Amino acid sequence: MTHTLGRPDFDLIAAWIKPGHRVLDLGCGDGTLLKHLIDTRGVQGWGVEIEDANILAAIRNGINVIQGNLERGLDEFADQAFDHVVLSRTLQTVRHTEGILREMLRVGREAVVSFPNFAYWKNLRSVLDGRMPVSEDLPYQWYDSPNVRFFTLLDFEALCNRMGLIIRERSVLDEEGNPVTHEVNFLGSLAVYRLTQNR
Fold first, then answer.
1. Which of 84, 78, 34, 79 is nearest to 54 (CA)?
2. Measured between alpha carbons, how far is 121 from 127 in angstroms, rounded to an integer?
3. Is 128 helix (H, G, I), strand (E, B) or coil?
4. How large is the average pLDDT for residues 54-62?
5. Over pLDDT 70: what percentage of the chain?
6. Which of 35, 137, 145, 172 is the most exposed place for a label (fewest CB within 10 A)?
7. How much of the chain is in helix, strand and coil states, percent to nearest 5?
8. Beta strand 190-197 with 64-67: parallel, antiparallel or unpaired?
C-alpha cells in the first residue's frame, strides 16, 4: 500500500478535510502535512511550531507558520477561527493534555488527533522483554524521546468521555499503514481521531 509522503495518517486526515477549509496544524514540523493539504484540498493553512529549524523549513515549504509553545495555549487565536485543528503525532509530547484538547476545540470546530498506541502488541512485547519499545511510530530511545506520555486507544477514549468530547470518527493503522478493524487496541500501531464537542 502506497501512502502520501510515507505518512498514512496524512491520507486519512486529508480525506476528512473539505476543500477550502481553514486548517491549523499544531506542531507542524517542516509543514509537510499542511503543504499536502494546500496542494490536494486547497485549504487555507497555518502552522504552529516551536523549533527554529522546523520553522525555517516550513517557510521554505511556503507555509504560514507562527512560533509558539503549545503548552502555553492558543491565546493568539480567536474562538472557532478554524474548521479543523490538527495535532499529528504530538499529543504524547504534550504535558497539558486536557488543556491542549480544550484549546483545539475552542479555536476549531473539529480536532484531528493522531498518536502512537502504546498497547500495540509489538510495544507490549518489548516491555515484556524488559525494554522500552522503539518502532516506526515510537522511533526514539527512552533517553532521547520527546514523548512524556504513553497511552493507549482505550485511555484516550476514556479521557474524551470524561471531557465530554464526541468521537466522530476513528481510524487505526498497523505499522505498514494498513487499516485495522478488529482488536484495534492490540493490533493498531497508530490511531487517528476526529473530535467535536457539544456547543
1. 34
2. 10
3. helix
4. 95
5. 96
6. 145
7. 35, 25, 40
8. unpaired
Q: What is the pTM of this model?
A: 0.91
DSSP 196: E
From residue 141, alpha-carbon distances to 45, 144, 145, 160, 196 in Å are: 32, 6, 6, 29, 34
Name all contacts of 59-68 with Cβ < 8 Å and 24+ positions apart: 59/31, 61/30, 61/31, 61/32, 61/34, 61/35, 62/31, 62/35, 62/38, 63/28, 63/31, 63/34, 63/35, 63/38, 65/28, 65/31
Predicted confidence at residue 115, as pLDDT, reads 94
C-beta separation of 13 from 114 below 8 A? yes
**What pLDDT, in 10s, does the model give residues 101-125?**
999 999 999 999 999 999 999 988 9
Question: How much is the average pLDDT of 58-86?
Answer: 94
Q: Give the dihedral sign, CA 54/140/161/168.
A: positive
Q: How far apart are CA 63 and CA 60, in angstroms?
A: 7
Q: Give the dihedral sign, CA 161/164/170/172.
A: negative
Domain residue spans of the chain = 4-197
At 189-198, the pLDDT tens digits run: 999 999 999 7
What does CATH list as the number for 4-197? 3.40.50.150
Using left for φ > 0, alpha for ψ between -120 and 50, and beta otherwise, residue 100 falls in: alpha
